[in-house]
Design brief:
Layout (H helix, E strand, L loop, with lengths): L1 E2 L16 H7 L1 E2 L1 H14 L3 E9 L3 E10 L11 E6 L4 E4 L7 E8 L4 E4 L19 E3 L28 H25 L6 E2 L1 H18 L7 H7 L1 H4 L7 E11 L4 H10 L16 E12 L3 E13 L4
Parallel strand pairs: 1-2, 10-12
Antiparallel strand pairs: 3-4, 3-7, 4-5, 5-6, 7-8, 8-9, 11-13, 12-13
Length: 318
């Protein structure tokens, strides 16, 4: 979903949190809405999950989701695995990962308590996540001040995951068409600035579309799709002796969809429109382009966007 980040909000104004239902209804929120929704999702799956407040790079004060997984049955004496989830960006890190963008935790919020981090160390790799350790974490609620005396009901409301489901198919097609047209127009513009035409390869575009669909399915372990499978699907264009023998260079993008402009910017920065050999004999058809867009809709119109862009240039001697 769109991350408003809160940067354009008056810092002295009231900070209003949306419930997860409200967050999905308006389809926009900042770090706390993203982290709370993800935490609620994990809790529904009976995972040990928390919302943690801390300091991150580059955002500064931020909110992440944290999960704690017990060791596998094969190694029952091993330590728990602590995962930190940047829900706004869709990234996760182990607490021991030096590349983790969350650098310090101020406090953690669980289902029935809030714990303040009173440890001297700010290094997450050295931080204890044993909330029973009173020297590491100070609970807000205890035997004297019981949680039940202050809060008995959740402010969250049930989410209607079927809302708008019948219209999702048409919506997906509309988004795919919109993004595809925007990419085509920009590729044509970038090429025309240098006096070059953009010759499209519909056959390659169709194959790329099928590849993206398989990659989405593979990401959910619905099927397996390897690099070898990719070369198999592109074999028609990689055959040196065939009439359509091409070399191919390209890339793909996968991210939640909120706006088309970041996609266009990423494609331009990849400089794909300059790929291929420089032709001096006017045979611009020897350099062709293909792009494909695939959108997978999840409940409440949360979209997983896949984009592939490729440049095909005819092999020498074909």
């Amino acid at each position: 979903l769109e991350d408003s980040g809160g940067d354009d909000i008056d810092q002295e104004s009231m900070d209003v949190w949306c419930t997860s239902t409200e967050f999905l209804d308006i389809m926009a929120g900042d770090w706390e809405e993203h982290a709370t929704l993800l935490c609620n999702f994990f809790l529904q799956l009976n995972r040990k999950a928390f919302v943690v407040f801390g300091n991150g790079i580059p955002e500064g004060d931020t909110v992440y989701c944290m999960t704690i997984d017990p060791p596998p049955k094969e190694t029952p004496n091993a330590d728990d695995t602590v995962w930190l989830w940047n829900a706004s960006k869709g990234h996760k890190y182990k607490s021991t990962d030096t590349k983790c963008t969350l650098k310090e935790i101020y406090y953690a919020v669980g289902k029935n308590n809030i714990w303040g981090n009173i440890q001297v160390t700010k290094d997450l790799s050295k931080t204890s996540f044993n909330f029973e350790d009173k020297k590491a974490w100070r609970p807000l609620f205890n035997e004297k001040y019981k949680f039940e005396a202050y809060q008995t009901e959740t402010v969250q409301t049930p989410i209607d995951w079927k809302l708008g489901a019948k219209k999702d198919e048409d919506y997906v097609k509309e988004v795919e068409k919109y993004i595809s047209l925007a990419i085509r127009n920009r590729l044509e513009h970038w090429r025309s600035r240098e006096g070059k035409s953009m010759v499209e390869s519909p056959g390659a575009a169709k194959i790329l579309g099928n590849v993206l669909r398989k990659m989405e399915q593979s990401s959910h372990k619905e099927t397996s799709f390897t690099e070898e499978d990719l070369y198999t699907d592109l074999a028609k264009y990689l055959q040196p002796g065939s009439a359509s023998g091409f070399d191919i260079t390209g890339f793909y993008i996968n991210r939640p969809f909120t706006d088309v402009q970041p996609i266009i910017d990423e494609i331009e920065n990849a400089d794909i429109h300059h790929a291929g050999p420089v032709t001096t004999d006017g045979s611009e058809k020897d350099v062709q382009f293909a792009h494909a867009v695939y959108v997978k809709a999840f409940p409440r119109r949360v979209l997983s966007l896949w984009v592939a862009v490729a440049c095909l240039y005819r092999k020498r001697g074909t």
